[in-house]
# Entry
Amino acid sequence: MSKVHVKICVGTTCFVMGASELQDLEKFLPDDLKDKVEISGAACLGLCRDENYGEAPFVTVDGEPLSNATVNAIVDKIREKL
Amino acid sequence: MNDNNTFIEIEYCQNVKNGEEACGDDYKTVELEDEERLITVLSDGLGSGIKASLLAHMTTSMAMNFVSKNMEIVKSSEIIMDSLPVCDERKISYATFTVVDVIHQNRVRIIEMDNPHFIHIRNGRDIAHENTVLASSNWPDRKLVVTDLRVKPEDRIVFFTDGVSQAGLGHRPYKFGWRREGCLEFIQECLHNHPEMSSRDLSRAIVSRARSINPGNRCIDDITCGVIYFRKPRRLRLLTGPPFKEMHDHDFAAKLVDFTGKTIICGGTTAQIISRELGREIKTNLFMKNKGLPPTSDIEGVDLVTEGILTLTEAARCLENDVPATEMAPAIRTMLNLLIESDIIEFIVGTKVNEAHQDPSLPVDLEIRRNIIKKLVHFLEKKYRKKTTIEYI
# Structure
């Protein structure tokens, strides 16, 4: 089964708005998701410059942008994708 | 300095005697741009601690003033010796000095009084020079040794206080201390293994070795070493910020191609533009611990890729406050190492403002990029004598 790919933006805006805590996402994933997710970083996803996407921090889950990202919101989105 | 000239890298490393707060050795460097002169002075005050520090500081200050104003050297040294306060315990006033006066990048005059004799290294060899010995009639024991020499690109001049040459004194195998010969051999070995070793690294290596020769790796005296390296300028180009107009993105990215020096990219968007324009993938080191700063990324052919404003602001803070490398975030340590090891630094600054950075709800104030770059340039020029240029795009 292919994994769900989570990309965390660590650009300036995202980082100061909370992405610094998302760097540890892997640790906070529920056990049943740990081997179903692949996490990587992005120098900048470029989403903060477009108001249509909402507010930082941004991640993408299988390419779908998620604004105001928190660990819980990311976990919910991952479950949606599975 | 233009591209064909030599960059003169002067760096010192100093370790204070164990148990003392103040260092009894002192050094000063002054650049007289109008005269194309660079003067550096090293002094070792009698004893250690505050008294020695005072003697050494007075000596470097006076020697620097006299030499830069071209005063007669015997007279100058008389004034220095007459002015130094007399030590209560030893009933004498005393401080050594070495003055290195570099004129027009290749003529050098070295004036020494009682410091270990300097070392001039060319192609791994210690070059011997004729010198003139002078003495004042008032102070016949204090001999001044004046050496005039010419240097070539890639030459180095190394000089130090007796904390280096007397390291290990009285302890096997250095019964008579490390001496100038021991230090010379060590320098030759370092340069054989690392022919492009910077003054900063060489001075640190010498001081660290001198210290390690002492029993218990202790500083039994103040240890100071200065190194002057006449080297071909090393270039670095730092790109930060998206160009004001997108139509310039390609030209901006092209600044990294065909550039032979080191390169740094600061900024997530900047990295994205370069990745897109050059077709090179960005890999972000998401799990890197970077002391509260965003992690670095990798782009093939680029020496360092960091986040922009936060990282640059922190780099400027560390430069301003001389923060020790051990206390720096890894990205800052790498960045400042690259900057300090370079001689000509070109900043290519994109001027487009990221509006998201101006959002008042952000938990931190983000400086305007141009202001941070100006700050960085200021410290690189004033503290490290780097030649810098800024191009806005």
User: Anything to note?
Assistant: The radius of gyration of chain A is 12 Å. Residues 28 and 71 of chain A are 7 Å apart (CA to CA). Chain A has one domain: 16-63+71-81. Chain A touches chain B through 23 residues (CB under 8 Å).
